[in-house]
Amino acid sequence: MGWEDMLDFQTAINFRLLQFQSEWLQQNLPCLSEHTSIVMQLSFLGISVLNFLKNNMGLICKQRTKFPDQGTEKHGIGVRFSTTHKTSMACSLFLMGTHFVVLLLLLNGSVTYCNHKVRAYLSESMQVISWTISSVAVYWIVNIKSIKFPWLLRAWWLCSFFLSIISVAVDTHLRITYHGELRLQDYAGFLSLLASICLFGISIRGKTGLTFIVPNGITEPLLNGKGDKHSEGKIESLYGKATLLQLITFSWLNPLFSVGIKKPLEPDEIPDVDIKDSAEYLSHSFDERLKYVKERDGIINPTIYKTMILFIWKKATINAMFAVISAGASYVGPYLIDDFVKFLNEKNTRSLQSGYILALAFLGAKMVEMITQRQWIFRARMLGLHLRAALISQIYKKGLVLSSQSRQSHTSGEVINYMSVDIQRITDLLWYLNIIWMMPVQLSLAIYILHTNLGMGSVATLAATFAVLLCNIPMTTIQKGYQTRIMEAKDSG
Q1: Which CATH superfamily is domain 278-455 in?
Q2: What does the domain layout of the chain look like in residue ranges?
């Protein structure tokens, strides 16, 4: 009876939660798009104001030491507008006008699904203000001579795209539920979604495409402060100029694959590395951090580990986030597999909507897992190469200034092993370091799923897991001893 009472109690709680969720959706779904719109636009307007104040304060501080802008004189003859810039301006003005028309309809008494008129007025008013700021920002890009759209503008276009999807989806659902007719606001919503899709694509690409005509009649693209020129015969780095979408899908490699699939690649057909991935840049960056550690600790010969941590911690943190998200997304499928089996066995009683939700959950989780997994693998290898290049350059520069006494205490074989073996071990550590962050997430989710389906039987699984880990400790200790002896033998050689 005890177990039956507990099951009845759990069933009652689940029923109450479902009932509460259904009532909450019925009350809040009509105003969901308005609530989301107000929150997003308040954030956008607040960040815009802070960014405006920051830029103006910077101009005031620099006013006393103002120099003539040679770039303005150089590019001041004329500008050639690109299709991207014209499209972004047209879409921004169109969205501003569309929301202004919708606001006028609301003021004239047009009916909305949301019962809170003030929220609807506030949402549309803020939309008009936000798209006015967006239009002004797109126009002002010509004056600041930027090769890319500002990050804030691109973020707003991305958010407005998802906001348009939510708005159209909610309105469509409510219209089908209440058997309503198409209104002028609905047509405006569909047109706004099309304009948001265009801006979404532009924000992913990120480039304005503007070119300026110099006094000698030559048209050249904006360099945006990058004066470094690649050596003749070298193709510009594909990774360095890749857009966000290309970085996610690795499509920046397609030009290289299109040539390599036809014939073996020649040296002049291989793109150059980006300036931030070059050994010279990485060595200089490592030197700067080493100098900072010396000044902070007041030590002439500080430990190299602190410098390494300062050199990699930002990218390593981002990489760890990708690894943790990948580990978490990989367990969405096992968690939902029981619901999927129940849906297949109860197709006559379960709604088709729940099946679509399950399919979308599986698809979304797999896409997130695939993207994040490839990102953390690629970034871990790239970060290892960065650290390898920096450390090898440091050892090489140190070897150039070694005294005769130091050369006698460090054999040539030992120095070679530093560069070929020890540094490789350190770079491999960056790869295995992500396993440390992933293992607790994977273990916790696995135990939770087992506990949900098996109950107390999951405790035995946890005990067996820890037993296997404890049995591996003696083996790894012995392996470490053998590896140390092998390295000592190589150094003596």
Answers
A1: ABC transporter type 1, transmembrane domain (1.20.1560.10)
A2: 29-58+74-220, 233-272, 278-455, 459-493
Q: Where are the beta strands (DSSP E) in 179-299?
A: 211-213, 219-221
Q: Are 26 and 160 in contact (CB under 8 A)?
A: no
Instruction: Give residue for tokens 């290898």.
Output: 381
Q: What pLDDT sits at residue 141?
A: 80
pLDDT of residue 374: 92
β-strand pairing of 219-221 with 211-213: antiparallel
- Residue 83's nearest CA partner among 177, 216, 205, 169 is 205
| Beta strands across the sheet bearing 219-221 | 78-80, 211-213, 219-221
User: Distance between CA 308 and CA 302 in Å, rounded?
Assistant: 11
pTM, two decimals, is 0.55
Which residues of the chain have a pLDDT value below 70?
A: 1-35, 52, 54-79, 109-117, 174-175, 177-182, 211-234, 404, 406-413, 490-493
- Residues 200 and 162: their CA atoms lie apart, in Å, by 9
Long-range contacts from 308-314, C-beta under 8 angstroms, 24+ separation: 308/387, 308/391, 308/426, 311/285, 311/286, 311/386, 311/387, 311/390, 312/383, 312/386, 312/387, 312/430
Closest CA to 447 of 464, 469, 432, 471: 464
d(C-alpha 339, C-alpha 492), whole Å: 62
Crossing angle of helices 304-329 and 352-400, in 10° steps, is: 160
Question: Residue 217 is which amino acid?
Answer: G
Extract the tokens encoding 129: 């203000």
Place of tokens 């490839």: 374
Q: Identify the CA nearest to 275 among candidates 326, 237, 314, 329.
A: 237
Query: Distance of CA 208 to CAs 72, 81, 197, Å?
Result: 18, 9, 17
Residue-wise pLDDT tens digits, 298-315: 877 777 888 888 888 888
Are 208 and 138 contacting, i.e. CB atoms less than 8 angstroms apart?
no
Give me the residues paired with residue 211 across strands.
Answer: 80, 221
Coil, helix or strand at residue 79: strand
Element counts in the chain: helices (H) and strands (E): 17, 3
Q: What is the pLDDT of residue 231?
A: 46
From 359, 380, 363, select the one nearest 438 (Cα to Cα): 380
- What pLDDT is recorded for position 212? 56
